[in-house]
Recover the amino acids of this structure.
């Protein structure tokens, strides 16, 4: 009787350990995987995820927002001419926005850093190019006739977020514990 009692309890304990391992694979283990990812980069999210996700959404919104206001046309047509992101650099910003969003979900260190650096660097070049165009066009005409729009400002903010996330991931990513060699 005692032997059958022990075998039933050991089977129940084995079933409990199998069930807990299965739960960790499913929805019940999401919180633990999130915590693990923020510590060592092997869970769902990493330390730069939220900045990269925010920057990705900012770039997607900036694509469809006004980038440049041309105030020279106010006297002619009664309103400022607006250049949207889709009129020029929109394809670059939408691609870099999707790249930043994807990088926010990659839990591997080098891949996440590469996504942040590529998206931030290329978008930074586009923003710098547009600022140069605005400044040179304003200098060639009446000063203040070309003004930056919300899309340009959002893109510049996304660049700052992406580059900050990359630096933060490079400096502060905890490495997984090294196994002691006996």
């Amino acid at each position: 009787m005692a032997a059958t009692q022990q075998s039933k309890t050991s089977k129940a304990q084995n079933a409990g350990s199998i069930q807990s391992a299965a739960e960790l694979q499913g929805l019940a283990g999401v919180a633990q995987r999130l915590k693990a990812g923020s510590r060592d980069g092997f869970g769902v999210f990493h330390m730069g995820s939220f900045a990269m996700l925010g920057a990705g959404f900012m770039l997607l919104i900036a694509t469809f927002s006004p980038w440049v206001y041309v105030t020279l046309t106010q006297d002619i047509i009664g309103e400022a001419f607006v250049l949207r992101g889709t009129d020029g650099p929109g394809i670059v910003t939408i691609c870099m926005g999707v790249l930043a969003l994807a990088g926010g979900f990659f839990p591997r260190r080098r891949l996440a850093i590469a996504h942040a650096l590529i998206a931030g660097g290329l978008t930074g070049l586009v923003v710098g190019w547009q600022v140069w165009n605005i400044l040179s066009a304003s200098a060639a005409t009446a000063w203040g006739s070309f003004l930056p729009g919300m899309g340009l400002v959002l893109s510049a903010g996304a660049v700052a977020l992406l580059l900050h996330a990359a630096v933060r991931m490079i400096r502060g990513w905890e490495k997984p514990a090294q196994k002691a060699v006996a």
